Amino acid sequence: MVILTAFLILFLILGFVSIFLFSTKTLKLKTESSTNPTSYPLIGSILSFNKNRHRLLQWYTDLLRLSPSQTITFDLFLRRRTIITANPENVEHILKTNFCNFPKGKPFTDLLGDLLGGGIFNSDGELWSSQRKLASHEFTMRSLREFTFEILREEVENRLIPVLSSAADYDGGRTVDFQELLKRFAFDVVCKVSLGWDPDCLDLTRPVPDLVEAFDVAAAISARRATEPVYAVWKLKRLFNVGSERKLREAIGTVHASVSEIIRAKKKSLKIGGDVSDKQDLLSRFLAAGHDEEAVRDSVISFIMAGRDTTSAAMTWLFWLLSQNNDVEKKILEEVNNESALGLGFEHLRGMSYTKACLCEAMRLYPPVAWDSKHAANDDVLPDGTLVRKGDKVTYFPYGMGRMEKVWGEDWEEFKPNRWFEEEQNYGTKPVLRTVSSFKFPVFQAGPRVCIGKEMAFLQMKYVVGSVLSRFEIVPVCNNRPAFIPLLTAHMAGGLKVKIKRREH
Description:
β9 and β10 form a beta hairpin. This protein has a four-stranded mixed sheet, with helices on both faces. The chain has a three-stranded antiparallel sheet with strand order 3-11-8. A two-stranded antiparallel sheet has the order 5-6. α9 packs across α11, α13 crosses α16 and α14 packs antiparallel against α16. The radius of gyration is 24 Å and the shape is globular. The chain contains 19 helices and eleven strands. By secondary structure, it is of the alpha+beta class. The protein has a domain of 112 residues: Uridine Diphospho-n-acetylenolpyruvylglucosamine Reductase, domain 2, CATH 3.30.43.20. It is found in: Membrane. Its main location: membrane.
């Protein structure tokens, strides 16, 4: 029996190899010169995918540039067809016009379900809708904006600036990883706003809390699940609790346990304190709304994940771009000095349109979220004529969109904040920010799922950029173009190593 089984397995392997060899020689359906990846019977585009797995961003972008419709399709072994688009009309169709037909879908929510559970960024239907309504209400409250701004001001003035001052005053200048500092800063801010808890990550004399490292590990491994050519691989590893999936389970255990402990402590303090009207953090607000502990845990984990990595990534790339474009940095400084004679306040930040244009331009080239996927609930046809079958994975691609000549013009590769302004009508008038379709620039998503923290994110980034640049020069120790790494949230490979110099006034 054992011998018979062995022969059967060998026969199946040889049969598969024979079919594969036959496919590669005689049944090739598409070539690499076409707009879609090379595809073979049975195995689809898995060979092309695996070959380009280390450079998916550039590979997708190159193929989309060749496509007349800025859309490509391909199949992977044992997975549904994937459609990737950089066409703004398609993006509008997916995110707004036919929104109900393009939920995240179970294949996507499975990837992040272990970490994010049923949180707002990993849910569909009524579960998503109820969380969205609650969060939208809270984010429009003036009290939350004021609470956030006060936390932001304290974190910048009492922690970030002193850390940078210490590095600047160090004999010969200390090299610091500016990306790491911004991530620590952002984690402090988002934990204070979301949980009412202070991890104090900018205290460099002690190790960061276990929760921080667990977040990093969990996010990285969860993201890599999506790049497996065959999803069964990570699912089997999870089933047997081995390799990266074992590390993921341990990291998620730490995240869930840490956040649950904070929630229990918060519930206890709310009972002791009685009135929750003076509790401004999101956790207190969600608990006051009567949500159970698991739902609240999933919600705040989602907000921490989004709020920490997105703003720090965008600012990291902006500071690097400014180091390569001194003329743009000077214009930001002029704006900051004009707006903040008495210090950067909320209204001053609203008026910093040039700084906002610089941030948008940085995110066009280096979006914090490089791609996002939905799954078709039913058959459909995209505006460019692409047929969509029920169950297809449909991905819109901000990274590629920022590099499309059809979308941004021949100068797409240049860092040009002025592209975000209307032409000045009268001499001496202040330029007005151009209204750019969110479907052309879907960095904050668009439609019903548009990011509810968008304005708070700009507020935070403007404040940090203005406060830092007005005091310091940020000088990279290496002028080579950094590598862009697209995990759940993109980051700069190896960090941004810089010298901090006090700015001469």
